[in-house]
Amino acid sequence: MDRFAWTSGLLELGETLVVQQRGVRLCDGEEKVKFDSGVLLLSTHRLIWRDQKNHECCIAIPLSQIVFIEEQAAGIGKSAKIVVHLHPASSNKEPGPFQSSKYSYIKLSFKEHGQIEFYRRLSEEMTQRRWENMPAGQTIQVNKDPRAGRIRAVGIVGIERKLEEKRKETDKNISEAKEMVELSKSIANKIKEKQGDITEDETIRFKSYLLSMGIANPVTRETYGSGTHYHMQLAKQLAGILQTPLEERGGIMSLTEVYCLVNRARGLELLSPEDLVNACKMLESLKLPLRLRIFDSGVMVIELQSHNEEEMVASALETVSEKGSLTADEFAKLVGMSVLLAKERLLLAEKMGHLCRDDSVEGLRFYPNLFLTQS
Amino acid sequence: MSFAWPWQYSFPPFFTLQPNGETRQKQLSAWCALALAYSRRHRLPAMTVREAQDSPLFANRRLQRILCGARAPACRPLPSLPSAVGERLLNPHPGKLPLESIQVVLEELRKNGNLEWLDKNKTSFLIMWRRPEEWGKLIYQWVSKNGLTNSVFTLYELASGDDTENEEFHGLDETMLLRALQALQQEHKAEIITLDDGRGVKFF
Fold first, then answer.
1. Which of A5, A124, A265, B55 is 20 to 30 A from A94 (CA-CA)?
2. Contacts of residue B67 in chain A, CB cutoff 8 Å?
3. Is ipTM beyond 0.85?
4. Which of B7, B22, B72 sits opposite A374 (nearest CB)?
C-alpha cells in the first residue's frame, strides 16, 4: 500500500477512463486497511481509488507499477478479489497514505461484484500499455524558432521546422481538450462541494459526454452468466412488454423481432443486442412467463412458457401430410408464421423423425417420414 | 417380368441423403436392398461409378419428369455432363441420387460384404447380390449331398455342367465362382488347383 499517492482524482490530459466499479475494498497484502468502501477507477495510466463516503479521500497508483495481476475466486462470505503484484515504490513518488509496507502486493476486494469485467479491462491495459504512448500531464517543451521562413531545407533546419508544426498542432489540441478538462473539473468540483449530490440528470449528461468521447459506458457491470441487477430488471421489463405480442404471434418470436419491437417501444434509451441477450438468458431462472430458446441452427427465439414447440410439431406434421409435401415458404404462408420460424419448426419435426427432406435444385421440401412409418 | 421397383423409388426424399440418423439408416437399408435386387435381376456385371450415375438404379426418370413438370413449367433438361467434376458443382436434381450419396450407398454395400472395388482408385466395382461365402455354402451343400467330396472339378463343370443344371449356382460367372471357391478355401473345404487347360477345384 505504500505505492499509492494522494491525488485529486481528476484525469490528466491524455488520460482516459476505461472502467469503474463501486464497492471495492483495498487490502495491504493480507491485512485490511481503512480504505474499505470506495469506487475503483481504471484509466489508461493509473488505478485510482476514491472513498465513497469522503470524496476528498482519493489515492492512485500508476499502472507501470504493476508487475502482474491474478484473480481470486469468491468464497463463502468472501468477495472475489484481484491480487495486484507491484514493483517497489520509486524514490520520487508523491506522498501517499502509507510510508512503508511489508507486502509487495495489494488486494482489490469486489464487494458489489464487477471483478470479471474489471480484471478483463485491467489485463487489456496491462497488455496495451497505453500510458507509454501518451505521457499524461506533461507540458510540451518546444524550441521557439525565430526563423519562420517557408524555405524548404533539409538537415537541422528541416527538423526544427517539423517541430514547429507539431507544436502548432498540439496547441490546437490542447485548447480543445481544455474545454473537456474544464467541464470535468467543474463536475468534479460540484461533487466535492456537495451542493446536494450530483443530480441524476447531470450524471446522465456526464456519461453521455464520456460516450461521445468514445469511452465505454463506465457503469457496465458485465459478469457473464451470473447476471446483474440491471439485466434482472430488464428481464422483468421484457416479460411485461412481450406478453401480448407473443400471444398475438402464436407464442413464439425470433430474437431479432423482439429486439426491434422492444427498441421501438423504448424510443430513446435503446438496448444493445448484448444487453437483450443477457437479460433473456435470465428469463427462465427468474421464473418469468417467457423463456429464451436456442435451436440447433443457432436461431434464438423467445417463447411463452405455455408454448410447447414439440406439440406444434405434431400439428405441423398433419399440415404437411394433408398437402403431401411443403417447403418452408409454403408452410409459413399456410400457417401464418414468419419463414424463419416455419423453417425451424419443420427442422425440429425432421429431427424428431416426423418429417424427411427432399433437397434439390427445386428447393428444400419436407415430406411425412414414410421411411419410419411405412415398412 | 418387369422389375418390381419398391415404393421408395417413387418417393422423392429417397434421392436425398437424410440428415436424421434413424431415418438415414432406414433409407440406406432400402437402397442396399434395391441395389441387390436390381443387380440380381439384371445380372449386373462390373460397373464404373460413372455408369452407376446414369443407371436407372440411381435415377428415376419418371419421377424426374413428374417433379419437374409439376413445380416448374420451364424445367431445364437434364444434361449429360462431360465430367464428374462438373456434376459435383451443380445442385442435385430431383429424383436422381447425387454422386456423393451414391458413394455412401456403395460403401454401405461394401461394409455388408455385398460389394467389391475392382481397382485402387475406386472407379469400378462389382455388386455381389449374394456374398461369396453364401455361394460357397450352396456349392458345398451340393457337393456333400451328392457325396462328391474328394472329387476334382473344372470350373466349367461346376458352373455350366449338366449335373448342376438345377442348382442356383448354375450359370454363375467365373469371377463370382472363383470368389466363392476362395471363401471355401479359407474354410479348408476346398482347394483351387491348376489343371491342363485352366483352373479347377478339389473339395474336401
1. A124
2. 360, 362
3. no
4. B7
